[in-house]
Amino acid sequence: MEEEKHLNYKKVIFVVAIIVLSISCIYIGVILPQIAFKPKEQENIKTSEQQEGRQNSNVIEVILEPKEDIPSREETFVYPQMTPEKVEKVANIYHSDYKRVFLTFDDGPSKTVTPEILRILDEYGVKATFFVLGSRAEIYPELIQDEYNKGHYVANHGYSHKYSSIYASIDNVIDEYTTTENIIRNCLGMEEYKSNVFRFPGGKPGGKYANLKQQAADALKEMNVAYLDWNCLTRDSEGSFDKDTLVRNMIDTAGEKTSIVVLMHDAGNKITTYEALPEVIEYFKNNGYVFENLYNILSGQ
Ligand SMILES: [Zn+2]
Question: What is the CA(107)–ligand 1 centre distance, in A?
């Protein structure tokens, strides 16, 4: 009997111990974390709210920054919807019943020249067209954004500018065009952006790749992609000319043309190109030309 009592006593102690242990577990596992960690969680939430608040106030600051010098992009159309008719319009750019000039800059962007060109264009209120290289654009996305935000047309000059590479096949031309379109799109953060206009490195006509370029142009046309050459140039890619020589070359090649597409370059070493630019602009202004860019050709229906 004595032994049985002792056993019962042991059982009671065991059950009590289990209950105490269970309560302890519940306390440690469920209640304690709520008491101990909840304030921390709330603190975290508060911190992230504060961060969000800071981010929001940053956004507001950005929106409130004065940007009078940058035209509203709503005023120009953003994503040219290309049609075969518009591809033809680009092909017929050299015909016009009024005097107009398109300033175009190839081979950029570059940190040394592109910002200077943008500054001068801003000073004169002139909108230009930039045929950018994909390989340069991916280094300086902020310059592509600047070009776009200031109302210039960002068009496509391929990726590598290596003739042996881009003109190795028609597919290579299309690949370089497509890659560069994607890079421009990423630079601008606009999934819908399409330039739809290509400039062949070295120009479309002539040279030892003439046949291949013609076939590539036909393939691009099938994709509703236009290409654009030029009918006036400063010859800034043909040697180290001083600015006076560049201006003279421009005047000589402009001649008496009514609709002019000027070829210039904003690669890193084209210092005299931006030095000559004010005189280039003033020449066309003084001779009654209207400055246009590809938006003027491609906007509308
Ligand atoms: Zn080029």
Answer: 5
pTM for the structure as a whole = 0.75
**DSSP code string of the chain:** -HHHHHHHHHHHHHHHHHHHHHHHHHIIIIIHHHHHHHHHHHHHHHHHHHHHHHHHHHHHHHHHS--TTSPPGGGS-SS----HHHHHHHHTTT--SS-EEEEEEES---TTTHHHHHHHHHHHT---EEEE-HHHHTT-HHHHHHHHHTT-EEEE--S---HHHHTT-HHHHHHHHHHHHHHHHHHHT-TT----EE--TT-SSSSTTHHHHHHHHHHHHHTT-EE---SEE--TTSS---HHHHHHHHHHHHTT-SEEEEEEE-STT-HHHHHHHHHHHHHHHHTTPEEE-HHHHHS--
- Asked whether residue 173 falls in the same domain as residue 52, the answer is no
- Ligand 1 center to residue 270 CA distance, Å? 12
61 Cα–ligand 1 center, Å: 39
Q: Are residues 36 and 174 in the same domain?
A: no
- CA of 205 from ligand 1 middle (Å) equals 14
Residue type, position 227, single letter: Y
**288 plus 192 within the same structural domain:** yes
pLDDT by residue (tens digit) across 237-267? 998 999 999 999 999 999 999 999 999 999 9
pLDDT of residue 54: 30
Which of 13-22, 190-199, 247-256 has the highest average model confidence (pLDDT)? 247-256
Ligand 1: distance of its center to the CA of 149 in Å? 23
Same domain, 12 and 154: no
Number of domains composing the chain: 2
Q: How far away, in angstroms, is 201 Cα from ligand 1 center? A: 5
